[in-house]
Every structure is written in structure tokens, then in C-alpha cells.
Amino acid sequence: MTRLAFLGLGVMGYPMAGHLLRGGHDVTVYNRTATRAAQWVQEHGGASAPTPREAATDCDIVLMYVGNDDDVRSVVYRPAGALAGMVTGAILIDHTTASATIARELDAACRERGMGFIDAPISGGQIGAVDGRLGIMCGGEEETFAKVKPVLDLYAKECSLIGPTGSGQLTKMVNQIAIAGLVQSLAEAINFGKRAGLDIEKVIGVISQGAAQSWQMENRWKAMDDVKFDGFGFAVDWMRKDLAMCLEEAGSNGARLPVTALIDQFYAQVQARGGNRWGTSSLMHLLAND
Fold first, then answer.
1. Residue tagged active-site, from 147, 149, 157, 172
2. Which of 147, 175, 224, 290 is the one with CA 20 to 30 A from 115?
3. Which residues on adjacent β-strands are paired with residue 232?
4. Going residue by residue through the chain (290 aa), what tens digit of pLDDT does each one get?
């Protein structure tokens, strides 16, 4: 049994923490909204703590999944933050989709205290978190990764060390760039099919068995066909946050992202229509309601 803390019980973190407890570990959770943590304990067992520091105290591994760079800093650095409770030799894992810059910053902070760090953003959505079939892309030292991989495997379909610190976050940017293009293309294809009078369910049944197949097609076509996106899938606000990091990083490394920049502006139009919390498949709304 390993002593674990899990900080952040959103739609992803909530089931992920549950997998850790069912895997036989001693798990203490923290969430900014305490009632959410209490609900998790009632459902799964384990324990909750009122601050990240108290949750992390004497733990072997501290995992977190929060919103953005600022949230990460708040949870980690403040007097009641995780680092204040962690002991020498402990390992901090950040599942947040954040910048490569903060990953390197956290790694340096952990090294100063004799602790390990892994940046480990994920892909697979809420369904993947519930089913324990996430893709986890990691950055850090091989020795540290080897220690935490058995824990991460409890909710992973694939968990790989990509390279040094920050590599996980950069890989997640690759993932989001690819998804943005796929979702826009899928929206255009389905809108074309609908306007051509085709039965979209039959169309998807055929083309999803060929070269056009993708996870996005299999999991997002129905919402696009129904033009219903409220509360379904990864929120537009979060996607724009991720794409902003991709575009910023591209400005540093010289990569050209013309399609990504365009799709980011399409998502801005979705936000202007009140779709901040709609799922990413809401790009269809711009085509179906032009």
C-alpha cells in the first residue's frame, strides 16, 4: 500500500482518485469545494483534508489535476499548499494540462526539496477516466517515472515517458492541435452530409470502418448530428485555454499553426454565442446555424 494524495476532484479527477483507492492504496483527497471531497469519501471511502498541505502530509506520491498554471501554483506553493506537507523523497505528479514552463518550474522546486516530479497530462476524456483507460504522456526522469508508473497504470490504457520534464505538456499540445483539426473536419463533413440529405447514422456506420475513422468520429458524431452540445464533452473554455498554450509555444519554437489559429477563432465565435461550457463538438453550431 502506498500513501497517496489526490488534489482536484473535477469530472476527471473524481473517478481517477477512485481507481487509486480500488487499487489498494491509502488515498486522501482535497478539493477546493469541500462538499465535493466529502461526497467522494462517502462514495469511495478513504479520507479528505481541508488543505493541500494536510492532504499531502507524509504521502509517498501527491497527484493533482486542477485548471491551469495559476491554479497549479496556488495548490502547490501557498503556505497551505502541497509542497509544505510533502516529505523528502516524495513525488509530485501534475495531471493538469498546463504549460511546459510551469512543469520545469515545479521540477526545480521539487529538486530543491529532495523530491521528484512528473508532468503527466492525460487524454481520453471523462469516459476514459471513468473506465480507467486514459492516455498519459509523461515528462521527467526515468527513475522517478518507474516508481510512479504502477500507480498511474491504475487508470491508464497507455502511460509513457516521452522525455525530460515538460515533454508531457508538449505532447499534450500535439494532442490538442490534432484534435482541433479533427473536430473541425468532422463538423464540416457531417454538415455537408446533412445538407446533402444523407442519413448521418448510416454514413458514419460506413466511413468509421475505413480510413476516416477516429476517436472523435466515434464519440462526437451524434452530438454534431443532433446539434446538442450543452454539458457534453470537453468544454470550449478549456479547449481555448489549451490552444492558447499551443499557439504561445509555437511562437517560441517557430512552428506554424495556421489551421489551429483559425479553429481557435471559431471557438471564440462559439463563446460569443454563449457556448463557453459546450463541448468541443459545438464547432458544428457555427455551420448548422450560419
1. 172
2. 175
3. none
4. 699 999 999 999 999 999 999 999 999 999 999 999 999 999 999 999 999 999 999 999 999 999 999 999 999 999 999 999 999 999 999 999 999 999 999 999 999 999 999 999 999 988 899 999 999 999 999 999 999 999 999 999 999 999 999 999 999 999 999 999 999 999 999 999 999 999 999 999 999 999 999 999 999 999 999 999 976 678 999 999 999 999 999 999 999 999 999 999 999 999 999 999 999 999 999 999 87
Of 245, 226, 222, 240, whose CA–CA distance to 280 is shortest?
Answer: 240
Assigned C-alpha cell, 89: 523523497
Burial of residue 252 (CB within 10 Å: 0-12, 13-18, 19+) is: exposed
| Domains of the chain as residue ranges with CATH | 3-164 (3.40.50.720), 170-288 (1.10.1040.10)
- Grid coordinates representing 101 are 514552463
- For the chain, the first-to-last Cα distance in angstroms comes to 56
Tell me the C-alpha to C-alpha distance, in Å, between residue 1 and each of 5, 52, 54, 144, 224. 13, 21, 19, 18, 44
Q: Which of 228, 237, 242 is nearest to 281 (CA)?
A: 228
pTM of the model: 0.93
Give Cβ neighbours of residue 75 (< 8 Å, ≥ 6 apart): 7, 8, 52, 64, 66, 81, 82
Q: Is 241 a catalytic residue?
A: no
